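Might I ask for a little of your time on a matter of protein folding? Here, with my thanks, is the record as I have it:
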Amino acid sequence: MTKKYQFFSIPGTHRKEFTYLDMSSDTFLIEKKALLTQGFIVEDDVIYAENATEAVKKFDSNYLYALEQYNLATTPSIPCYYSSNG
């Protein structure tokens, strides 16, 4: 069964000092608040994985960065026009 994991890291450590939470845990919100209070920040989006080991591997491989780059490359852009006349 696929689970959702949220990763947190200490700013300035280039994702080397991190931890994660299983979002299905009954104490997820309490634990998340505690991590944020300790100075951790949320990294990326949710990672879907079969287990924690797989989630960490995806996090370590910068899985989400690659996915975002793919989405940017395959999503047509919509031009924005700016008028200085109001």
Observations:
- The chain has three helices and three strands.
